[in-house]
Amino acid sequence: MNLHFHQLIKGTGILSLAGIMEKGVAFILLPLYTRYLTPADYGAVELFLILLAIMDIVVSQGMDSAVMKRILYDKGGQPIEAYRPAISTGITYVLCCSLMAGTLMILFSGRIAPLLFDQSGYTKLLAFGAGILLCQATYKVMAAPLRAAQKYATVAGISFIIFCAKLAGNLICLLYLDAGFASLIYGSFCGGVVSVIVTIFFARKYLAWGFDRDELRRLMKFGFPLIFSAIGFLLLSATDRILLKTLALNAHVGLAHIGLYSIAAKLVFVANALALTPFRSAWPTVYYRIARESGAKQTFANFALRFFALGLLATLAAHWFAPSALVLLTTPEFYAAAPAVGFLMAALILFALNDILKVGMNIEARTHLLPIRVALAATLNVILGVIMIPRWGIVGAAAATMISYLFMDAFTIWACRNFYRIQYDWWSVGKLSVLAAALFLVPSLVPLHRMVQDPLHQMVLDLGLKCVLLGIFLLATLHITKIDLTSLLRRSPGGIA
After folding, report:
1. What is the pLDDT of residues 125-169, one digit of tens each?
2. SS3 sequence, the chain?
3. Would you list the domain boundaries of the chain?
4. For residue 493, is pLDDT > 50?
5. CA 471 to CA 404: how far, in whole Å?
6. Cβ–Cβ < 8 Å for 186, 179
7. What's the whole-number mean pLDDT along residues 164-187?
8. Nearest to 409 by CA among 279, 236, 261, 259
9. Close Cβ partners of 5 (under 8 Å, ≥ 6 residues apart)
10. Which residue has the higher pLDDT, 247 or 187?
11. pLDDT tens-digit readout, 75-87
12. What are the φ and ψ backbone dihedral angles of 233, each rounded to 5 degrees?
């Protein structure tokens, strides 16, 4: 258990750097963009990215995950080069699908652009969107063998190059070409092109030209059900934005609400890039190996408990420090995003936790259950959103999303009980939850405004108190989850490349 936990922590740590560099341009440029763009501009870009994400899922069809499983679980022990037919088949299939989807996007750009941007003068952005789609879909499959080989340093290096390309593209388009919110799209296109070129170079020994129908059938048997699950996930995460626009008084107000919501999500990006996205990338390389060992279910239960505990810590930190972060990074018109940050962090944690809870569905090839759990959660999200958004705005949208992900996690545990039952430590889950709730109430019960009159001193004391409370929760987490921090830090790399 400790060895696997160390491998996962090390892989996550290295990939966190990759995640920050690959997706960090939007966050790094947040102070600049919030001065050049309005919340409505951010809302338009958010809808455009949702469209690209949906199309990416459709054309990818879970091929990157299917290639990973083919390498790590189906015939474990062979060198990755032996799986070139599967890798090349996945890449060829995704490339053809993305070309067809991109062509359709360009042909119907005149109808799509007014729906996204509330005006028809941005049809050319759909052509760049088609290019982004092509690059993103092929990059994921080409990078799968590098992840399977646990070449995390190489993945981090590729991400650094992509980061530089995106950053340069954004800055040139925004400051020199004065392209406005389209700069975000042009920058993503630059990063996409570079990602494909660089990944081909570093993964060249795993790549080859070819197409095998038998391999395609094997890959699609695992990957095809993931389409519906992934689309469901995206719709689940996008429902809040869609409802924010639909339930608004007018289109401009709706885009402004989406913009504020997007800014709140950008703050959550820090945890997502530092830990959650890298964890989700490293986790398949670990759990398929764990599944072959005795005591695998207990190991998965321990992983889930530790992840849940650290997620509670991250949620408290996000809720407490969001107002200060917005003051430092944005302008006053974006400060209203702060109350939604804590709920979005909790939702993100519950979403990533599901990767641990659903291992039984992947191991036992019950992937047909994946879209069912997402569909139920998405339905609940719509119902809660219609009820909560008119009254609480972006806070209601974030809270509805959090509750929906919580329901999805509960359903996943329930669905796996008959074919891959894992005995989770519910007593420890309860203790951590009660402690987090108690610490959450402490700052509101301490009358700092009566103790200190100066606003600056109040802010310093408030931040200091919250840091102490986070430290208390961290110590409790280490004790309850039995994490030996000293041995974890001293342990050798354990074979991680």
Report:
1. 888 889 999 998 999 899 888 887 878 778 878 888 888 888 888
2. CHHHHHHHHHHHHHHHHHHHHHHCHHHHCHHHHHHHCCHHHHHHHHHHHHHHHHHHHHHHCCHHHHHHHHHHHHCCCCCHHHHHHHHHHHHHHHHHHHHHHHHHHHHCHHHHHHHHHCCCCCCHHHHHHHHHHHHHHHHHHHHHHHHHCCCHHHHHHHHHHHHHHHHHHHHHHHHHCCCCCHHHHHHHHHHHHHHHHHHHHHCHHHCCCCCCHHHHHHHHHHHHHHHHHHHHHHHHHHHHHHHHHHCCCCHHHHHHHHHHHHHHHHHHHHHHHHHHHHHHHHHHHHHHHHCCCCCHHHHHHHHHHHHHHHHHHHHHHHHHHHHHHHHHHCCHHHHHHHHHHHHHHHHHHHHHHHHHHCHHHHHCCCHHHHHHHHHHHHHHHHHHHHHHHHHHHHHHHHHHHHHHHHHHHHHHHHHCCCCCCCCCCHHHHHHHHHHHHHHHHHHHHCCHHHHCCCHHHHHHHHHHHHHHHHHHHHHHHHHHCCCCHHHHHHCCCCCCC
3. 2-490
4. no
5. 29
6. yes
7. 83
8. 236
9. 302, 303, 306, 483, 488
10. 187
11. 556 777 778 888 8
12. -60, -45
Q: Which amino acid is at 359?
A: V
What's the burial of 36, exposed, middle or buried (CB within 10 Å: 0-12/13-18/19+)?
Answer: middle
